[in-house]
Model the fold of this input.
Amino acid sequence: MLARLVLLILVIIAVSLVWRRLRGMRRRASPPRTVDARAVRCAHCQVYLPSQDAVLREGEVFCSAEHAARGRRTS
Ligand SMILES: [Zn+2]
Done:
């Protein structure tokens, strides 16, 4: 009888630990990454690219260091 009671308590502890871990995983997965990964346009070649890959120079956004050096295309 005592062994069954101990087993029941262990099962309850194990279930609560798994439940907490699942809730923690859900909370970690929830932050949206769409804000960081917004698209920006290169001022030189007009190509769209993720903002974290963009090169920023004098307030303009470029797709690469090469296009940043060439600057905004005037034509
Ligand atoms: Zn470009």
Strands lie at 39-41, 48-50, 55-57, 60-62. The helical segments are 2-29, 65-70.
